[in-house]
Each structure stands twice: as C-alpha cells, then as structure tokens.
Amino acid sequence: MTDASAPPALPVTFRPTRTRAVLLTAGAAMFVVLTVIAILLPKLSPGERTSFVFTGALLCGVLVLLSRPKVVADDSGITVVNIATSRRLAWAEIVQVNLRPGDPWVFLNLSDGTSLPALGIQPGIARQQAVGDARALRALVEARAPRGD
Q: 3-state class of 17 per DSSP?
C-alpha cells in the first residue's frame, strides 16, 4: 500500500488534460469548418477565402495558446508555464501551494512575498484531478523545501 501523501517520482508534469483536450479539439474544428466554408462558398473571392482560412488559423492559435499552461517539476525545482509566460523556480523559493475552494487555479506563495498563479493545475472541468495534482505538488514542495528548524 502506498502513502497518499508521498510525493510523486520526478520529473512530473501537471496539466489540465481535459481542458486542454477540449480547447485543442475546438480549435481544430473551427479551423476545419472555416476552411471548408471558404472552399465551398462559390461567390467568394480569393482574398475572402484567404481571410476565412486566416481567421480559422488565428482562432485555432488562440486556443492552442490557452491550452499551453503546465507545471513541470524536476530535481532542481519547477517550471510554471502560463498562457504567455514561463518562470523557473527553485524548490527553496516556494513557501506554500494553495488551492482553496473557489480558486480558479493553484497559487504558489513565494519566499519574496509574492504569489504566482500556476494555471497548469486548475479545477475547471476536472476538479478531482486538480485537487490530486495540488496535493502532489504540495508534497513535493514539503519534501524538498529547506527546513528552518
């Protein structure tokens, strides 16, 4: 029997897999639908057809960007990849991992007094997975953070 509070083996990646699947599927579907419309509508000029395809690609790109968040933990620390930014943290920089009821994602309290949102762990459409991932990340932080005893 394994200990439920034991940290997972490293390296480990946390990401909202259901949300990511929905976003990527919707992006691909929009691109395909707009491309098919551009091809099938007989009265469109080449510029209008290109505009349909470009719009589909742009919408798909936005949804791919929204599906980017993840948290990657390895021996030296974690990398928090959010929508447009990425930040590398050493284990010693993380004071606390928070996922309170109603929070849209995990927040990391840092040693400099700031808080960093980690969008890679979000309860959205997979609450149980997010709670389990937050507990696993918390266990990793507690196991690797330096003790001030």
A: helix
Determine the longest span between alpha carbons in the chain, in angstroms: 75
Specify the DSSP element, H or E, that contains 4: none
Residue position matching structure tokens 């990793």: 140
Q: Per this entry, what is the length of the chain?
A: 149
Q: pTM here? A: 0.85
Q: Is residue 44 within 8 Å of 52, Cβ to Cβ?
A: yes
Burial 37-67 (b: 16+ CB within 10 A, else e): ebeeeeeeeeeeeeebbeebeebbeebeebb
27 φψ region: left (φ > 0), alpha (ψ -120 to 50), beta (else) = alpha
User: Tens digits of per-residue pLDDT, 11-38?
Assistant: 999 999 999 999 999 999 999 999 999 9
